[in-house]
Amino acid sequence: MTDFRDRDDEDSQGIPRRTAARTAKLASLPLGIAGRAVGGWGRKLTGQSAKEVNAALSAKAAEQLFEVLGTLKGGAMKFGQTLSVFEAAVPDEMAAPYRDALTRLQAAAPPMSVRQTHRVLAEQFGRSWRERFREFDDEPTAAASIGQVHRAVWHDGREVAVKVQYPGADEALRSDLRQLQRFSRLFQALIPGTEVKPLLAELAARMDEELDYRGEADSQRAFAKAFANDPRVKIPRVVASAPKALVTEWMTGTPLAKIISGGDAATRNDAGARLAEFHYSSPARVGLLHSDPHPGNFLLLDDGRFGVIDFGAVAQLPDGIPRNLGQMTRLALDGRSAELMDLLRESGFVRPDSDLRAEDVLAYLAPFTEPLASERFHFTRRWMQRQAMRVGDSRGQDFRVGRSLNLPPEYLMIHRVTAGTTGILCQLDAEIPVREIVARWQPGFDD
User: Fold this and answer.
1) Do 202 and 330 belong to one domain?
2) Which residue range or ranges hold the ABC1 atypical kinase-like domain (predicted)?
3) Over the stretch 283-323, which tens digit does the pLDDT of each residue have?
4) Residue 11: its pLDDT value, please?
5) Between 149 and which of 80, 142, 218, 368 could a Cys-Cys bridge form, CB atoms 3.0 to 4.6 Å apart?
6) If we measure between CA atoms, which residue out of 225, 215, 235, 105 comes closest to residue 165?
């Protein structure tokens, strides 16, 4: 069977995969941002306030960043989508242009040519792949970081979604992530309070999992089985799978991004509660954690259920969320600093030779437990901005404590996904009974 990964079609608009070209685009980011900084100094000299100039520079930097990432697809676009859930932490004066740039990134990237799409499907499902479908729409309905989605009708009449991986996605991912790691400090400045370097390292470590759609199919089958009879959540079943193509049942509904931008309070609250319950319950119900929380992967279906797609990034948690995380959360919420410090040391969050004080660690962690202090909590952008600025202010005590704490590798994914889910809740401006959800599903919290 022919391998199409090393061929460049003149009529293709698919993923740009020549390393030199991709590197040049990524390298333009720090140069462009540095150039604008020089211009900003000039505007300060002419009388504009530092706040006004910095907001304008940050907005333009975000715009350029996501324009380049969206064009490149691959690891660059994946990184941009991962950053996007932290948009709620961006200060108000630059949030609007930042949000616009993120929306364009999440919407779609230029599609592959029809001929290229057919080649991939023939390679994955055989030359007679068309016989498996009654209908197949050559125009993609959505574009993701490493593939695009087509709507079709399976041979038995079911409406299906067909995800087709971009040729060269593997090469593009590796190239992008190497380059992005070089510029991690630059991106750090755009998202206060977010650790960009370990985020990129995690994406690189999980790259091979996302490139093999067979692994994604296995994860989706497990989720679909566990939630098969759930009246609140819908996971589409897998119809067929191959290394670079995946066919699943089609779901029709309202994307979470539209609910964020225009949904009424009741709808936003309902979506937020369902998102939180899905996040906290999955490890207990499936032994897995959906690890790609951005609005493009969630929708509200016409029958009222919460739909979840894209299981390429999934964390294996066969024993559920570790009990000590629930215990730490409870101790921080109750202000029990000495017991909290002992458990943090025991679990590897505080190094044996650390001179951190228990009261300082409690002061750093306690504000994160604020949503659990009452029956309902209103997740807002302003609340998340306060947390981000608090831990991101290099002059403050919380910044120094955060830098001194250790995050064991086995907790990195849980921490990142929980932070991402919280970011979406703040984008939704949702008021939800999160304490009840955590108490039900997080071992150790309500023991």
Assistant:
1) no
2) 104-329
3) 999 999 998 888 889 999 989 899 999 998 899 999 999 99
4) 40
5) 142
6) 215
Residues of the chain with pLDDT > 90, as a percent, come to 49
- Cα 303 from Cα 306, distance rounded (Å): 9
Cβ atoms of 309 and 147 closer than 8 Å: no
For residue 427, the enclosing domain spans 323-441
Residues with Cβ < 8 Å from 231, sequence gap 6 or more?
305
Give the CA dihedral 424, 413, 173, 162, nearest 10 degrees: -60
Rounded to whole angstroms, how far apart are CA atoms 379 and 228? 29
Query: CA 60, 176, 145, 137 torsion: positive or negative?
Result: positive
CA–CA–CA angle 150, 311, 267 (5° rounding): 85
Return the bridge partners of 432, or none.
377
How many domains is the chain partitioned into structurally?
2
What are the angstrom distances between the C-alpha of 15 and each of 26, 166, 402? 15, 6, 38
- Position 295 scores a pLDDT of 87
Residue 131 belongs to some domain of the structure: yes
Return the structure tokens found at 221: 């089958």
